[in-house]
Amino acid sequence: MGKIFILLILITLSIPSYSQEIELGTIFTIQLNNKGKDMNTDFEIKLKNPYNDLIDSNINIDSLFKNKPKENQIFGVFANGKFGSKISPMLILLSGSNDYLDYDLKIKTPKEIVFKKTSTISLFKNVKTIEHWSYQIERIKFKKFRAIPKQDIEEFNFQEKIDSTCIENPNLNIEFAEKEFKKHIELIISEFKESENFKLQKMLEYEEYSNSTDVSLTHFWSLGESIYPNNKNFKFKKTLSFRKIECPYFKATSNYFFEEKNKTIRIIYFKWNTFSESNIGINPLITKNLKKEFEEKFDFLLQTINDHLGIPIQNITEENGRRIVEWKNKHGVSAYMFNFSNYNEINLSIYKE
Questions:
Q1: Is the predicted pLDDT of residue 196 greater than 50, yes or no?
Q2: Based on CB atoms within 10 Å of each CB, which residue in 28, 35, 287, 307 is the most buried?
């Protein structure tokens, strides 16, 4: 019995199970090794370093990994992430493998002793995947990676080529988008000014008219107090979001926050990001002009809101280059616009308190 007990201890010590676990607040690299006949792939976690920053899903996901992983690598970050004002665990993976991969993952919460299995998203070469949990997790454990037969997922096509959106729809350009935005903003400010019950249906009709794409998430997400103070404590259960492309530079999103009971809009939040090409990345032909284009977009928005709400009550440029502009007219309609000093994004909220 003693020999068997010692043998079991030796076997246990020889299994590097610890290397499969990742604790919250870690950036890491997984190395993929030999692929077996059953399509399972041996792997090991080769590099782990602390990651103490907060991941903001609206800001810094694209900047997490400075380089692309090699063919036998997967880059990962497991840390707290921010969705609006909510902070909870997030796992981001980027695979360099030419194989499409599935993997098994187990999670451990602070209140539980054992790990339990969780669902995962398949991995594709150079495409970031995001796993997000609404509750606290302290550790995760990778159990198995396996290649997916490509004939089973023919509908996926991640070739690195220019997205066809702007080729097939040359009319979706910045000039057209800015004309439409002027109509949109005039309607919004008029509704906020004239009525205490700005009904959601009016904006749904507008979005249908403008052929935007519904990109609403299945869960509610909130805004920071600087963007929308919500002094009257309105209750929101869902956010509706619609996207338009302004070729070739911008992806514009309109987000509507409304009271569920009476469908009254309380705030509309706009965001402009760089248009990415089918999850592959940004067209390299436009990168050298991006900073200038975002500066011109900011100036256009500034003038457009000025035309409707008057001179801003605040208009500052911080030392790091971040710009903040705030309006409030005599009818109580407010707007708040800002950009980031080191990231191409513009945010604009319009509301009435």
A1: yes
A2: 28
24-70 tens-digit pLDDT: 999 999 998 876 555 677 889 989 999 988 887 555 566 778 788 99
* Three state DSSP letters for 282-323: CCCCCHHHHHHHHHHHHHHHHHHHHHHHCCCCEEEECCCCCE
Length of the chain: 353
Contact yes or no for 104/117 (Cβ under 8 A): yes
Confidence tier at 258 by pLDDT (50, 70, 90):
very high
Rg of the chain, C-alpha, whole Å: 24
CA dihedral 156, 157, 160, 166 (to 10 degrees): -100
SS3 228: coil
User: What tokens appear for 263 in the block?
Assistant: 């469908």
Q: Domain coordinates of the chain in residue numbers?
A: 16-153, 165-352
Cis peptide before 170 (omega within 30 of 0): no
